[in-house]
Each structure stands twice: as structure tokens, then as C-alpha cells.
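Aim 2, interim progress. The first record below pairs a target sequence with its C-alpha cells.
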Amino acid sequence: MLARRATRLFRLSSQTRHAQALNFSSTAAVQADFTHAVIGGGVVGLAIARQLSLQPGSSTVLIERHSAVGTETSSRNSEVIHAGIYYGKDSLKAKLCIRGKHLLYALCDKHGVPYRRTGKWLVAQNHAQREALERIHALCTQELGVPVRWVSGKEVDERGEGVLAAAGALESLTTGIVDSHSLMLCLQGLFEEASGVVALSSPVVGIRPLSSGGPSSSSSSSPPGSAGWEIDVSDGPGGDISTMTAETVVNAAGLGSVAVHNMIVPPAQRKQLFYAKGNYFSYSASRPKISRLIYPAPEPGASGLGTHLTLDLAGRIRFGPDVEWVDDPNDLTVNASRLQQAVAEIQKYLPGVDTSALVPDYAGMRPKLASKGAASATDKGFEDFIVRKEQGYEGWVNLLGIESPGLTSSLAIAEMVGRLLYGQANS
């Protein structure tokens, strides 16, 4: 229903619709319902939709399968503003995280989104972990330009609030936390103020690139998508199907991104997504009282950054996420049986933790392009973000494997999508 209303609302006349200097040849301008269709209403999709809605004379629809925005990975994470310290300088994760961090702090200041610059200690307990911190320090100071500093043993003892760092501690000075729900509401509001349309409860069930000879015509010399895109949307599970058209499509569907990708490409180019569930555990005791984020030094080949200590804006402590590989992306029940394993990891850097005050809290899901993919760019199996115009198509920007640090990177990803479509960032 929402999708049909959105389509009817924006069936504009040929006198008011024209190509907006798109970075490709399009013949779809006078037929399409929208200039841009962004699939996926998480924080990344919201940021992209808001960015594209600023393009003069354009129209943008954000298509979300759930009844509200940001109900999947975007609302089930640590809410950390990452500094960008783990990834090689040539990786998208590094570039977009560092740029996104600055954009995010600026947006929060401008629009009153709650956040806090907490800083973060990375702590090492043995020689191998110390070497990992030294590699991060060298990467940050020599290549990335991200502020970090060594924390002396004396400072750990005096200001560590019970944290153990037997082999050293490295501080990330620009790490923070943000209210992710307020951030997404802010982005949604800015998008709608720019006349953007949000189509909720509208799962995409089919996509067809158009060329001058018709949908994916083999007889046409123009590439698929050069005449726009048809998008079939269901009015909820088992509901009626409605079709909207757009000049461009952005796949920002997160956990559903590979499914959207596979709707478009031939069988030989289809991908598989792997699901890394992260269990979180809340802490109800008043001691120890920690005022900053605490992360264990990264372990080589690990699929995450370790069971770390994070804070919410009220100062409440939570631990997680761990990494539990699952087959079902909807399996979001916290696995309480993993609590003892989490306790063992937490006690390595916070021996004074009251284990009786730890209880299962919530779980999130990370979309991985490879099973047991490594978190650090220096490890084998590292999977970078994919943000690209797909070769052989016109008007399709594809985002795959957008996990951590996706929230931090969201505004920079939006800038990049704008450049891919228009040749420069639209502001």
C-alpha cells in the first residue's frame, strides 16, 4: 500500500522530469517514477537517500521491508563511532570510516544527535597482543593519520578503573558513542524535509533493468539499466505486488543485500551471504565503574574485534559482541549458553567484574561475504566493503558486506554513492 501510494504520488509529468547530469547515459528520465530508488532503510540507506535527495530537481524513494527504519543491524550493534584504526590505508573501510567519523561528529553537533567522545583503550595481555598494538600504532601514525597514544603502566594503574593491561595499552583518542536511533530519526527527518519518500513494509520481490529494447533485452545495444529500472514491491508478506520505476537503483539492503544482488545478476554471478551473530551481555553492578571503551587487542584471523566493553550514553556497561556463525539471519535470540565463554574473555582485561551481574541482553547480525572472514585488513580472509557501480549495467550502485564500521562510515558511503552517480559529492 505504501509503495503504491508513493508511486502514484511521484508519477510526474514529462515537463517537470529531466535527467540530472547523471554520470551515465540515461533515456529513462521522462518515464521513471523516481530518479533514485534506495533499497534498505538502515542507517546506510538513510544516509544515501538523504544525500541523493539533495540533488536539484530529483526525486528519491527509500524502500524498506520492515514497518520502521533501522530495525536490523543498524539498531543491534555497539553504537560506537569508530576511529578507523584497524584497516589498511587503501581499504574502503579505512577511508570511509575516517571520513565518516568526521562527518558524523559534525552532523551530531549540527542537529543535536546525542553522542559522547569517550575514547577507547586497546589492552594487551601478552607479547603477541602487544605486537598487534604496535602494528596498529604504526599504521595510525605512519599511514592513516589517526590520533593514538601509548598509555603508560602507571596511568593504567592510576586511571584504569580496574582494567588489566599486562603487556600495554593503546588509546584511540577519537572513538566515541552515538545514539543510533536518534541518528536514524535525524536522517529520516532530513530526507523527508527534502521531499524524500519512505515506503515502509515494502519488501522488494523483483528487479528488472530496462534497456531501449525493453526489460533486459538481448536485442538492444544499450546496457541493462540504461532506460531505468522496474522494481516489484510487495505490500507485506503475501500482499499485492506493485511496480515502480526509477532511473537509478542503490542496493543498500544490508542483510538482504545479496538477495537483491541475486535478483539482478545471472546465476553464475550470484553470491552467498554468511551471518555472524553477535551476542551482547548487560552489566548491572555499580563496580567496577568504567568511563571509556575497552577493547582487547585484536587476535589474528578473528572475525570480530573481541568481546569488548562498551557504554551507552547513560553510562551503562555492556559486553560484546562475540561471534557465533548461524544460518538464519532472523535468529536474534541471545544465546545464553555463550555467557561463560564471554566471562572468560572479559576477565582477561577486567578481573574484578562481578560475574553474577552479567545477563544476556540482545543480539545483532553482521552480513559477511565470506565465512570466518578476518576483521583486520592485515589478516588473510579480510573482506572490504563493496561500494561500486556494477560493470555491465547503468544506474546500479551495489553495496555488499556493509558491516562494522558501517554506522560510522554511513555518511561517507553516501558521499561516495553520490560521486558514483554524479561524478562529484552532492552537498
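The second target in this work package is listed in the same format:
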Amino acid sequence: MTIRRLAAVAALVGLATVGCAPVQSGPTNSAKDTKDGTLRVWLFDEVNRAPKEAVVNEAIKEFTASHAGVTVDVQYIQVNSRAERFKAAFSDAKSAPDVAEFGNTDLANYVAAGGFADLSGDLGGWSEAADLAPKILETGKVEGKTYGVPWFVGVRALYYRTDVFTELGLQPPKTLAELAPLARQIRKAKPELYGISVGGKYTYGMLPFVWSAGGDLAKADGGKFASSIDSAQSRAGLGRYAELIGEDICPPSACAPNGGDASVQAFVAGKAAMTIGGDFNRKAVEAGAVKGKFAVVPLPGETAGSIAPAFAGGNLLGITRSTERRTLAKDFLQLLAGKKYQRQMYTAMGNLPTFTDVQREVSGNDQFTKPFIATLEAGTRFVPVTPAWAKIDAQTVLPNMIQQVVTKAKTVDDATAEAAKLMNTAFTS
């Protein structure tokens, strides 16, 4: 699962990313469309909720000022309990929200459960929708229909220590092939540092290596998926990533057990010269031991000047099928997910906007965001859009595969063959 807020929480408290089990049941569309009363909204809670809550409260104030007789009740739910909460909501309309925030990797599962309404027609009547970044909008779609409006997006890039690079007379890598030799050189010169901090369970750090090599998680044929993680290209990408976890770069004893959160935290603590981190890690890095001593560049691709495809994480806002306030839900969703409040959420939380014009605006005013926007513009990738992904995620198929390779418990070929078999079982079950 890749929910950006969970990543932010985990970066601070070391929480492991948790998979989402499949949600089974769903509601029917409501025939009612009440124009007053209480609109119920679920949003994810935060380690520090205050900045998010302040923006949401301002949106509520604006919304209720133009909708007489309407109140908005916001519940901030825990990310880790979301599967149970949504399952119960989809089974009982009385407990369901009208509008909800959810992670984009959960979308296919929730749509299969019948939980969220098709918003395709609503987007056609919303002028701002024309500026939603197409690749990001795709993360809110299932079989061509839009069920979630992207509220923010999260991508990863290469953080590096400017003081270390200056001291050693180094430059950031121009290709992925340069990354391991560079990290090895740094570790040799400064053995107290990891050349780069990555992890044996860091799925979203590994995927750009697979995609850059021409590999993929799965291929679709006629709406059916088959794993391709065991292709020659995918194996080459995984092998290149695994090279980073070795005594001469990032020792397996320290790095093999790590997911993305622990990998970034090592950089935050001043233990590593580089890491693959998200735009959402900014506040943690700036509050850590490397404050004022780091910069970010896009993770390079196979050739100089290219950018490795990044996973497009992020959260969506959707409308439940059971809502009895469909028009109010649409109006509030379009207000909160619109440009005005995406700008405010960027200022308050650092959330990258999903509108192309707002992305250009914020990157023009903030050097930090430029490599992330460049990564978005270069093209992002996503997990297979199928309810089966919830099973694959819950079974930790990919983290287990990576760890088997970096600990040398299995060869790349054997680990990917096993992962492909488990993925295909999920795809066909």
C-alpha cells in the first residue's frame, strides 16, 4: 500500500507499512439526494493534525457559507484501521461517510466492493478537472471510469549530502549505473557512512530500478493480469537495486530489514550520504541532523539526462455509492480537491498538487519541489489496477522477494520466480 500520509507517519515513528486486506461487501446507489443536513467526511489522521485540520476547517467554512442548512462532520480515521472501517461502511450505509480520503492503491479493491461512485460525469462539468495531470488522474480510475479525484501525489527522488559531496569532490550520479560505484566510493572514503541508505523491504525504492530496466510488475491482456516480475528486464533491475545492499555500500545487517521509512530515517540521522526519499519526507529531513546539508535530484534513468520512472503514490477523494447527499458531496469534494485548497495543503503539509498548472506554480517558488515535479513530468508508473493487488500487498510478496535477494537466501531468478507464482495465484483467484 502506498498512502502518503502513512509514509509521513512512519518516517517519524518508524511504523512499518501495512498491507490492506481485501474488502468484500458493498452498498447500492441511493435514490435520495438531500440538499441539507449533515455531510459526513472521513479523512486520514496525521501525526500532527493541526495544519491539515486548519485547511479543512477553512474549506468547511467556505462550503457552509454557500450551502444554507448544511453542516460538515469530519472524522479523522487511523490509516492502519482503514480496511475495517471501510468494510463496515460499505456494509452499512448508516455508518458510511459521504466523502472519503483513501489511498490510490486501495482504489481497485474498494471499487470491486462497490464502495465508491463513478465520478466521470462530475469531472466533465468541473472546469478545473481539465488541468489534472493525466498520469496522476489515471491513479483514480478503474477500467476507464474515475472513482477518485487525486488530492495529492507523492513521488521519490535522490536525496544526497551536499557537505559530503563537496568534501569528496563528487557530483550526483547521471545514470543508475553510476549509483552503486558512487555509493561504494563514498563508503570507502567515509566508512562511518552508508554510501546510500536503502532497504531490503523498500518496494517503492526498488521499483524505479525495475521500470528503468524495461521491466514491470505485471502485464495486462484482455483485462487479465500476469506477473512479469520474473522477466529478464525485471530481474536486471532488481539485481541492480540489490547491489546497493552490501558491506561496501549499505551493510545487509543494518539495511536488509529496512523498509522505506527506516531507509530515509538513516539519512535523516546523518548516517548515510544518499537515500531515495519522497517529497513527503522533507519536514523530517529538515528537522534532522542533515538540516542545511542536503539537496535533491531526480533519480536518474538508464541514460544521462533521463529520469527513472517513479511510483505515483498519493491519496484520492471519493464519494460513496450509498450517499444520500450526492450533490452536496460532489460540491464539497470539488472544493476541497480543487486548486485553492491544494495550494493551501501544499503550504500546510507539503502535499504535491495534482494540477499541472499548480505544480508549475509551486515549483517555480520552491527549489526543493523541482526535482519531484521533474520526476512527475518525466512519467510515473503504478501498480496493477486490480482488486488482487490488495492480496499481493497484504502477503508482502514484493518486500519478501527483495529481502530474499539481498540476504542471499535466494538468487534473483529463484526469488522472482516465487514472487511471480504468488502474484499469479492472486491474479487468478
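The CA atoms of residues 83 and 361 lie 36 Å apart. This observation will shape the mutagenesis plan for the next reporting period.
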